[in-house]
Write the structure tokens for this entry.
Amino acid sequence: MSIAPLLNKVFMVDLIKGLKVTFKYQHPKEVYTEQYPLERPAIAERYRGLPRLNVNPETGETLCIACNLCATACPEHLIVVQSERNPATKRKEMTSFTLDISRCMFCGLCAEACSTDCLELSQDYEFALYSRDGFIIDRARMERGSEPTVYTR
Ligand code: SF4
Ligand code: SF4
């Protein structure tokens, strides 16, 4: 071994170089720690999260007309829309809406296909569960959106 590598080893030059980089980033202005979940990160404007079914904000009635286009567009066949025809109005009315988010890839094709724009991919990202059972979300849950736990400490 030549003299230079030997001296590098003896005086632990590489270790010192590494520590120099480490200590450089110990300065408080270099530290960036997100205090999640107390502070939730800002989500990108175009982030696609949990699909949401919007209602009319004034009446609270669903905007879904049970056309089934979202279910047809979903490449994973995760959406099931059930409906019945109202004999008085002769219009189809949605009776149930379910979506299996365990296999959803948040592609947004369902929202693209929606004829009334009531289905959208929200910015909700907190829907982890301990059991797979809860991944099939129903109409009420889709209308409410996700309900993340609020931590105070
Ligand atoms: S986002 Fe994509 S995978 Fe998820 S329900 Fe919509 S169409 Fe299906
Ligand atoms: S495409 Fe829109 S309006 Fe049609 S069933 Fe799906 S959510 Fe309802």
Notes: The first strand starts at residue 51 and ends at 53. The chain has a mean pLDDT of 91. DSSP finds five helices and five strands in the chain.
